[in-house]
Amino acid sequence: MTAAHCTDGASKVGVALGCHVMPCDDADSTIQESFDFFVHEEWNDISLHNDISLIRLPVPLDFSASSKLFSQIFEICYTF
Known about the structure:
By secondary structure, the protein is of the alpha+beta class. It has a single domain (about 5-80), classed as Trypsin-like serine proteases (Thrombin, subunit H, Beta Barrel). It contains two helices and five strands. It has a three-stranded antiparallel sheet with strand order 2-1-5, with no helix packed on it. A two-stranded antiparallel sheet has the order 3-4.
């Protein structure tokens, strides 16, 4: 999930998970590029109402306790 103003008019988005500084160079980070995202159908770029987009990642994330992401993900940052 991200803000619609970040994806409105974009052809692709990048999602960096486990990164705390961009550009991301954390060894345990995961970066995925997606062309599959949806801007809220009632997004208004003047009033900023419904400023939300959903991003579908091409590869599912493993948040199980044994995965490297379990201890790394504190926040999700979107790039591109």
